[in-house]
Design a protein that fits this description.
This protein is mainly alpha-helical. The protein has a domain at about 10-40. The chain is about 45% helix and about 0% strand. The protein contains three helices and no strands. The protein has helices spanning about 10-25, 25-40, 55-60. Helix 1 (about 10-25) packs across helix 2. The radius of gyration is 28 Å and the shape is elongated.
Length: about 80
């Protein structure tokens, strides 16, 4: 039987964190972690931008691009 070891993600994280602390120092790492934790979450893209004009009309939104008026559609 073959034995395969699956390294723990927590163990990998601890090794990476120890390497970063050794390279940059504990104070620098704590400052960066606090800054990242306090950043606002990125805004989600507007979901209505992917809808076709037909679906936009069904939910009561105006069309993305106004229809172009050709000369043959204009009244005389």
């Amino acid at each position: 039987m073959t034995r395969t070891e699956n390294p723990s993600p927590l163990q990998d994280l601890q090794l990476m964190l120890a390497h970063l602390i050794q390279q940059f120092g504990l104070k620098q790492i704590i400052i960066v972690l606090i800054k990242e934790a306090l950043k606002p979450a990125p805004r989600r893209p507007d979901a209505t931008q992917v809808l076709s004009d037909h679906l936009r009309q069904d939910v009561g939104l105006p069309p993305k691009f106004p229809t172009t008026q050709h000369w043959w559609h204009k009244p005389f």
